[in-house]
Design brief:
Layout lengths: L6 H15 L13 E11 L8 E7 L2 E8 L3 E2 L2 E2 L1 H20 L3 E13 L4 E14 L1
Antiparallel strand pairs: 1-2, 1-7, 2-3, 4-5, 6-7
């Protein structure tokens, strides 16, 4: 019996050991990373006159904690920019605390709920910060 091998086939046979050495034939099955999650929610009131309530809520693994109070966007004289700046500092401090503990900021979702009853607008800003950490 006579086997005939052309140059192309010979080249492919020669390249096979090199491909195997480079790992093209034996790649491990990828694993799925498992995470635990923690959510940090800010609810900021935009009720005129400073009558609203603003809060931080922290949730993780079935536990929920109503955290610190945030300052309202409005005071009796209108928008209070010092309150907004104070809230921003508090929120960034909380994010820094979580990341220092090894949590990764994964997703940020925002929403607005507003209503008007004829005597002025009222509403809230909600921002949800979803953190995750490998298990």
């Amino acid at each position: 019996m006579h086997i005939r091998i052309n140059r192309r086939t010979l080249g492919l046979l020669a390249a096979l050991p090199i491909a195997l050495l480079l790992g093209y034939g034996f790649r491990p099955t990828p694993t799925t990373q498992v995470y635990t999650y923690r959510q940090f929610t800010t609810i900021e009131s935009v009720v005129p006159g400073g009558l609203g309530r603003s809060r931080v809520i922290i949730s993780d693994q079935g536990d929920q904690e109503v955290g610190r109070d945030l300052l309202n966007f409005y005071s009796m004289v209108g928008i209070n920019f010092k309150n907004i700046a104070s809230n921003d500092r508090m929120i960034v401090d909380q994010i820094n605390t979580f990341t220092a503990e090894g949590w990764e900021l994964h997703t940020v979702t925002t929403g607005v709920n507003s209503s008007s009853n004829g005597s002025g607008g009222a509403g809230i800003f909600i921002t949800r910060y979803l953190f995750r950490k490998p298990v």
